[in-house]
Amino acid sequence: MPSSLIRGRYVITHVVDRNAVNIVEDGAVLQRDGLIVEIGAFDDLSARHDVDDVLGGPNCVVTPGFVNGHHHLGLTPVQHGCQDLPLELWFASMIQQRDVDPYLDTLYSAFELIASGVTTVQHLSGWSGAGADQIVADSERMIDAYRDIGMRVSFSHGVWDQNHLVYGDNRAFAESLPGDLAARTAAHLEARELPVFEQLGIFEQLFEHHQSSERVRIQLAPNNFHWCSDDALDALRAHATRYGVPMHMHLLETSYQKEYARRRTGGSVIAHLERRGLLGPDMTFGHGVWMTEADIEILAATGTHVCHNASSNLRLRSGMAPLDAFEKSGIRVAIGIDEAGINDDRDMLQEMRLIKHVHRFPGMGDDVPVSAQIFRMATEDGAHTTPFVDEIGVLALGKAADCVIMDWNAIAQPFLRLDRDISVLDAVIHRARASGVQTVLVAGEPVYRDGCFTRVDRDAILDALAERMARPLTAAEEDRLQLGRELMTHVRAFYSGWLDEEVRKPFDRRNARF
């Protein structure tokens, strides 16, 4: 692989502490064979080393590649015709989504991720109603998309063995429905039921196929507590130990999920999962909006991670995660864009900015997110929630040369005063845009350069996706569209009375999750 110098007016290598990052001014990163071998002043490195290429320049900012710690789909729910609804209703609306070629769909979101500086993605798949063989085939197509574009991917096919539509038994819910809706719903849910051993077999096939890959990792994902029986959770824990892989699990996304867990366990789902041996540095919980102070203490004590999905939580009315409490407890928190960010795209720079601002509660205290904290979430903390933890997240000797090069002029023009109150990193967090991302490297390879993808023809892929989605709905898609619309009223009725008045009454936003 060619060697290169990655040059910047400011090279941001890593977070030092909550309020500071390490910056090499007029610096450069020297990479050979995809690994960082030296970091220092550009003039010194360029004088001592002959390289094949120089990337960036004296008016650029260089950072580690960003990690999207929680991702699902290409075409967004809105593009599929599904409104932003409370999560439990949104599940029903997502029945209406159309069939999409998994390769084209994955590339569509990968274009947006890379263009905003994301070099590694945690892809959580699992909405398919197909059999195991088809799931493996579709999963391989998604992985092929990441391989072809050059991204790193930690891929999981989510495991679930119960409660596929509401937080209750599939058959009991279907039987409660009127007329032929009961039979149609039962058939839809049965198509999504797959024995746990077959779902674990999907993981085994993918793991064996990709275990020697440089940029692909396979891990396990219990979909959510309400979707997994205790037997399924035990089987997942055993598999994670046997194969030495981490797990990622949606958890406590809404108050209804918290109530479900209370009914099932008699208390805290975090305590329940701890008793079953599922907590620790190899577990990441996505969302975690409705955790209590006691839950947070357990996570901190066990070294369990969280992935914060701010846009999704806002769009689906799930609430606001207790980010300040996570930070004070020393919990590593990644950033996940989930299905789509607040702008209905996959823009990590926008998501970082949103997180910094949405948690600025009224008052004069300093318990609000700061730029270095947000930057760490998008880089080092995100890396710790993936199997790539030893390779990515910071710019340091021996690490992979996963880098983002941004145009400093696009951030600073027409005027920007840097001083003790506004730092280089503050400027990046507040003002950087995807349009200012010049080059993105994965393992030293420019996969995006001067606004163009180097491995894949973006326009041809989007044209092919548009052509496919312009076709008339199939009979199966028409049936799902009608089913989703008919079920909405009944799903809403299912949750009537779930939350008592103490939970439903107005509350202080800061303490809402406690």
Task: Give a brief outline of the structure.
With 514 residues, the chain is α/β, with parallel strands linked by helices. It is 40% helix and 20% strand.
Give the topology.
Elements: E1 4-17, E2 20-32, E3 35-41, H1 42-48, E4 53-56, E5 60-64, E6 66-71, H2 87-93, H3 102-115, E7 118-125, H4 132-149, E8 152-157, H5 170-175, H6 179-190, H7 196-210, E9 216-218, H8 230-243, E10 247-251, H9 255-265, H10 269-275, E11 283-287, H11 293-302, E12 305-308, H12 310-315, H13 323-329, E13 333-335, H14 348-358, H15 371-384, E14 403-407, H16 408-412, H17 424-431, E15 437-442, E16 445-449, E17 452-453, H18 458-469, H19 475-494, H20 501-504
Parallel strand pairs: 1-4, 1-5, 6-7, 7-8, 8-9, 10-11, 11-12, 12-13
Antiparallel strand pairs: 1-2, 2-3, 5-14, 14-15, 15-16, 16-17
Helix pairs in contact: 2-19, 3-4, 3-18, 4-7, 14-15
